[in-house]
Specification:
Elements (H helix, E strand, L loop, with lengths): L2 H13 L16 E8 L4 H17 L3 E8 L1 H13 L6 E5 L3 H5 L16 H5 L2 E2 L2 E2 L2 E7 L1 E5 H6 L8 H14 L3 E3 L6 H10 L5 E4 L2 E4 L4 H15 L13 H9 L3 E6 L1 H10 L7 E4 L11 E10 L6 H11 L2 H11 L2 E2 L2 H6 L9 H9 L1 E2 L7 H6 L2 H10 L5 H15 L3
Parallel strand pairs: 1-2, 1-3, 8-11, 13-15
Antiparallel strand pairs: 3-13, 4-5, 6-13, 6-14, 7-11, 7-12, 9-10
Length: 417
């Protein structure tokens, strides 16, 4: 198993299964203090939002106190591991959706209680391990196609709806303008892994309680070949795109160097906030469908989780329910450009009929999936398993077949084969 997964197991051994800082694990009769970890929002306005939310909750629950700590995304995983090992976990935390199965499957998160109907299916699936759900969907995001309407219109082009059309439109942009056609990013799982689904493949499948990689399948290999060829053969992106992440793609689009990119509503909001002159020059569309007609993308976002063993479990669950109030979710998600994790929240969004932002709701609700909810997934991301392999194909160092065979072997080893 990869290094980071081993660190987590060691932390669990040290903690001996005790979390939440309690001796007897009993709920306080009344009041109490709960520690809450929220991922660093990167915005003074959002910190103000949480300060007010805490005050409102405390007013509704006399004698209680909510202590919110903001944790940087870059260090959050290691901070969770360290907290588990030292029996210093928070009572409630925001957790990235691909981490929830990792921690939930090792017994440090309390199972969700109550009715799960009404949440986007892919977000619930992403919190489920062996039939048990360990986190409630808070907010979510689904990446779609963002493009320059003026560029495509100037060339007499329609928005691409399939992979083949993406190549055709990309070639026309490449040959007929000074722009790069499409934002290929060598360091973004979320750009290329969904292509496996779009091509009719599976990243991994579960049978009889055991996961097995699908990355060496013909469908997965061809999906990675298609993606690498957009860079190496079609030259739709500059040479530097080999090391691009999503921020780099967005920066190139903002600078007027890209005609098309994959991105979420939060990225589009940031682009138009920084460059309002682009408002009438940008459009959105569902991701182009693969050969099998599938246009699925990754359903990312965050779950709200309660740690097992908290002294104030009911208070912690009350705080989660408080944050998941539809009006609060709408206010919070609207500020960051993400989407509510509840279907009703999606349908009631002010942007649901917006020609730019409404599309992201459709992409999330009808065309999104979660990565395999396994304990090992966090280590795959942390160790760069997929990005390193895809970069090697983009550089021509390895064939798609060889690179994906190595990925599949590493995944299966982590899965316990």
């Amino acid at each position: 198993m990869a290094h980071r997964a081993c660190v987590l197991l060691l932390a669990l051994a040290l903690s001996a299964g005790a979390c939440g800082g309690g001796d007897d694990g009993q709920e306080a009769a009344a009041g109490g203090s709960i520690d809450v970890w929220i991922m660093e929002p990167g915005s003074p306005e959002l910190k103000t939002y949480f300060t007010q939310a805490s005050t409102d909750f405390e007013s509704a629950h006399p004698g209680t106190r909510v202590e919110v700590q903001f944790v940087p995304w870059a260090s959050a995983h290691d901070q969770f591991v360290t907290a588990i090992g030292g029996n210093q976990t928070p009572d409630v935390a925001e957790m990235g959706s691909t981490w929830t199965p990792e921690f939930g499957g090792t017994g440090v998160l309390a199972p969700v209680e109550g009715d799960l109907d009404g949440y986007v299916d892919s977000l619930v699936e992403g919190a489920t391990v062996e039939g048990e759900v360990y986190g409630l969907p808070w907010y979510a995001g689904a990446r779609a196609l963002i493009y320059r309407t003026d560029v495509l219109a100037g060339l007499g082009l329609s928005v691409p709806t399939t992979w083949d059309e993406l190549v055709t439109v990309g070639r026309a942009v490449r040959d007929g303008t000074d722009l790069h056609a499409f934002g290929v990013a060598g360091v973004s799982n979320h750009y290329f892994l969904p292509l496996v689904w779009q091509n009719g493949g599976e990243i991994a499948t579960e049978k009889d309680g055991r996961w097995r990689s699908g990355m060496a399948s013909p469908e997965a290999v061809e999906a990675i070949r298609f993606y690498a060829d957009l860079y190496a053969q079609e030259h739709f992106a500059p040479d530097g795109a080999l090391s691009w992440n999503e921020r780099d793609v967005r920066a190139a689009f903002e600078a007027g160097d890209l005609a098309m990119m994959i991105g979420g509503g939060w990225q589009l909001r940031a682009i138009l906030s920084a460059h309002p002159e682009l408002k009438d020059k940008v459009g959105t569309a569902l991701l182009p469908a693969g050969p099998g007609g599938n246009r699925d993308t990754f359903a990312g976002g965050s779950h709200l989780v309660v740690f097992e063993g908290t002294e104030h479990e009911q208070l912690a669950r009350d705080w989660v329910e408080f944050l998941l109030d539809p009006q609060r979710v709408a206010a919070f998600s609207d500020q960051i450009g993400f989407l509510p994790g509840a279907i009703a929240g999606l349908e009631s969004l002010a942007t649901s009929d917006d020609p730019l932002y409404g599309l992201f709701s459709t992409q999330l609700q009808d065309h999104s999936r979660t990565y395999p909810p396994t304990e090992a997934w966090g280590s795959f991301e942390a160790d760069g398993l997929f990005t390193n392999a895809v970069q090697s194909v983009m550089k021509g160092e390895k064939s798609p077949e060889a690179a994906m065979a190595e990925v599949a072997e590493a995944m299966n080893t982590a899965f316990g084969e």
